[in-house]
Amino acid sequence: MGTKERRQRELEDRERVFLECARDLIRDEGLLNLQMSRIAEKSEYAVGTLYKHFASKEDLLLALTVVDAEQHVDLFRRAAQWQASTRDRMFAISVADMIFVRRNPEHFRLAQYVLTEVVWRAASAERREDFLACSEPIGKVVVGIVHDAVAAGDLELKGLSPEEICTGLWTLATGTHNLVHAEGVLDDFNVREPYRLMCRHTQVMLNGYGWLPLIDTGDSESLDALIQRICKEVFDDLCN
Amino acid sequence: MGTKERRQRELEDRERVFLECARDLIRDEGLLNLQMSRIAEKSEYAVGTLYKHFASKEDLLLALTVVDAEQHVDLFRRAAQWQASTRDRMFAISVADMIFVRRNPEHFRLAQYVLTEVVWRAASAERREDFLACSEPIGKVVVGIVHDAVAAGDLELKGLSPEEICTGLWTLATGTHNLVHAEGVLDDFNVREPYRLMCRHTQVMLNGYGWLPLIDTGDSESLDALIQRICKEVFDDLCN
DNA sequence: ACAGTTCGTGAATAAGATTCACAAATAAAT
DNA sequence: ATTTATTTGTGAATCTTATTCACGAACTGT
Questions:
Q1: CA–C1' gap, B95 and D16, in angstroms
Q2: pTM value?
Q3: Best mutation target, B166, B174, B187, to test chain A (most A CBs within 10 A)
Q4: DSSP readout, B52-99?
Q5: Helix, strand or coil for residue B133?
Q6: Cβ-defined contact of B204 to A201 (cutoff 8 Å)
Q7: How far apart are the CA of A3 and the nearest CA of chain B, in angstroms?
Q8: Over its length of 240 residues, how does chain B's per-residue pLDDT go in tens digits?
């Protein structure tokens, strides 16, 4: 009797509907104006039903973030599995991030809010674990590349752990996402293409680590060529 | 007739009282549980009076951030004015950040929340300008060091603007603050002293830029010695 | 002492998130 | 097929807080 399974499936479908409606509302009216009652209205369910799925508004927002994170992990996996030098594979992670942002321009705005203490604490413990669990592979994948690099002799750890090396690149990315969403800040600084700049900084950092083969960080044509190549070879279906 | 001036002063004093009470409440009960009525109660004024000073709760939080930011700028200025090589001065900025965090452990948790679209938009336009105005010198000071470095022949821009170079170091700092406040993330990564790690990454990045004199990023004793020296020579009154 | 003005107050209002008693739908038992 | 039990969905009512604003108190200048 598959009736239980069907119920389960219907439940998941409905959850997806709720999340999509929420996403649409955020896109159209802003995170600031998101109301639980409007989500219920738009999805044609009662408010109570919405609360059967999400412990609180914040819980729903975190759930939304989890959906994105799954896609994010997927892009990182592809970058890591690319057949190329360890340095290029690590760089491909930055490109993956850039592509992810292009496809989910609102993600980090949401994530920034959701990872705030206030919101994070207001989500359910279960959902928080979901998030951590689905983000974990991101770290794993990137640390894996560092290990490969050490094994291949492309990189010396110099007293740092692979995780610590990753942290440097990670903060570069996180920081960029932050600044991009901080009103007016980057404009004042005349930064036109923040993610391209992030890529350049990633290369600077990789050089700083002594990650072989070293490149000329001033050669922006090669940089663009490499980005293009990664788009073609790794993310062909995702680049226009 | 200094009566107008006295009023003005009393007003400012009261504002300071409100902000201090708010800070205490946040420290003791968490940002999540901060209530305007509690701030009024604690400061022994009426809620209405509180609203004479702050357009909204978010506005008050931003005001709190502004107070911190003033201190932050001050530390950066001291780092920039230090009589040392351009590279060491730039590195001293990271140390300034580290010291700032030690003295204001809650600042970036608050800032992270406040700079969120939702909260930022809910603060008054005036306060937002205050914030931008008082943060501006931070950028100025750091860009100044880059200019000095170029003038001194310690650094080649290689097609980047001084602002863009600063952005790299800035994202490193911002990203670090973020990760520090993201629950559980750094623990899983086994990062014990995130700000010391940030310093190491700053040095890696400076090497990556080719900022002279290059150093051996693996030599953590020299790193600690330099940090100590900066504490002594620049921030003597602030380091225990 | 008096009229005019500014300031502080906190009860009243408003906006929304969240709950929960009940109704409808479904499943199980006879 | 009918009855009983269980699960699910509902939305009006509740609760929590931020925010307002009509009023009286305090102050200013005459």
A1: 43
A2: 0.94
A3: B174
A4: HH-SSHHHHHHHHHHHHHHHHHHHHHHHHHSSS-HHHHHHHHHHHHHH
A5: helix
A6: no
A7: 39
A8: 467 777 888 899 999 999 999 999 999 999 999 999 999 999 999 999 999 999 999 999 999 999 999 999 999 999 999 999 999 999 999 999 999 999 999 999 999 999 999 999 999 999 999 999 999 999 999 999 999 999 999 999 999 999 999 999 999 999 999 999 988 788 888 898 999 999 999 999 999 999 999 999 999 999 999 999 999 999 999 987
